[in-house]
Amino acid sequence: MMRTQVRLQVNGVEHELWIRNDRTLLNALHDDVGLPDVRYGCNEGVCGTCTVLVDGAPTSACLMYAVQAEGHEITTLHGMADPTQEMHPLQKRFLEHGGAQCGFCTPGMLLTAKALAERKPDANREEIRYELVGNLCRCTGYTAIVDAIEAWMKDDHAEDESPGATGAASSAGADAVEAGA
Amino acid sequence: MPNDQVGLDPAERVEPTSFEYQRADSWDEAVELLRIWDGEAKVIAGGQSLVPMFNLRLTTTAALVDINDIGDEGGPRVEAGDEGPVVVIPALTRHSTVLASSIIAEHCPMLQHAVGLVGNVRVRNRGTFGGSVAHADPTGEIPCCLLSMGGSVTLRGPRGTRAVAAGDWFRTYLTTAAEPDELVTEVRIPSVAGLSWAFEEEVRRFSDFATVAVAVQTRQGGLPAIVLGGVADRPLLLSDDLVDPLRNPQTDILAAVAEAAAGSVTPESDVHATGEHRRRLVRVLVRRALEQALHPDSSRGDLR
């Protein structure tokens, strides 16, 4: 059989698909489940725009077949923040810092950062940059993105810090070019 | 296949042709499926190299045998060997597990460092150690490390289980000593705990494939192993006569060995770098790696 009946757990909802075996998880989520927040970028695992969490771990949806995802919990940006509800605190930080311009890379950035925060809540700026190396952004120059994530990680653990007082932008400079390069 | 592509010659279709998909949850089952498909099936583990090849239409297959359900048996472990502890890495151990493993950090520190340079976080979350060893990319960090640390690759096939020494494993581009009906089940690496090492690579962008990579692993009571990646169809272990001058590891000797290493290779040119540039990188990186591995306390001032 070139097609398989697959049950996918996506953002806590079960979807049943009759799908060609060579359809990637990206194809299935974007076209069949109808989640536009999972985006086609390079189709070879380099750009990070199709990042989803598979059992909590950032994964390129373009490098996994949909049939392989059965039995695993898939989280896309809609599972991290319901667009009809209030924004996720990290999304607010992205807005404050100008971490999104065209927005195409943003879901991948947010999910990657969320997974890092869960695995390493005290990650420093260098560690954030290392984690984001596989998420390409062609607008922001990365500095604002790293600023936003750094600010969010800091005040998630230091509630007393006032939202505007991040000061992170000052430390970036030329370094940030490397972070994305 | 989309309706507008039905009937097109396969080479003209935008999307690759589909394939049968089967999951194996034991090595026995995987071996049996490969036997049944008789060379027509491909094995998928992490898929971080294989799926791009499908997506780019560089290859196709009649069937995909998915071995992910076999699992990583708990990740890297240490076993007692005839000549000291041996680290066993089950084939389906994810790179992220290798990176986080305290066993790897203690017994194969170069490997831990090098795995941190593999791809990006998504590649490391999904890609497997056995997959990288089986894929045998001549620029890959893991093949380079494996050859410098020695050890063996365990294969399982319809004729049983066998081990291939790391030195005999890599044959040419993406080709190993494994027969088409065999699978890599684990990799065994002798512990090099406490011994110095260095891993140097030149990449166009962090997380990209290495243009040239150099691994140096010192050994107890022997000469260091020096391996070059990205300069040939497979990682190259420098021969004993090239390494022999290091019995007297003075700085000028290191430079001479680096020069000789560069002279021993004839890298090809490609879109990323000319052969001459790669050869220069060999000279620079070997010297730098030797300085680090053999004189870890010295200054790294004038190494370019």
- As a whole number of angstroms, the C-alpha radius of gyration of chain B is 20 Å
Number of helices of chain B: 12
SSE ordering of chain A: EEHEEEHHHHHH
Instruction: Give the termini distance of chain A in whole angstroms.
Output: 43 Å
Beta-strand level of the residues of chain B, as a percent range? Answer: 25-35%
Poorly predicted spans of chain A? 158-181
Uncertain runs of chain B with pLDDT below 50, 5 residues or more? none
Summarize the main sheet of chain A.
5 strands, mixed
How would you characterize this protein structure?
Chain A is of the alpha+beta class. Chain A has helices at residues 25-33, 77-80, 89-97, 106-119, 125-131, 143-157, 175-180; strands spanning 3-10, 13-20, 51-54, 57-60, 73-75. Chain A is built from seven helices and five strands; from the N terminus they run ββαβββαααααα. In chain A, β1 and β2 (13-20) form a beta hairpin. Chain B is built from twelve helices and 14 strands. In chain B, a hairpin with a 6-residue loop joins β13 (222-229) and β14. The chains are: A alpha+beta (181), B alpha+beta (304).
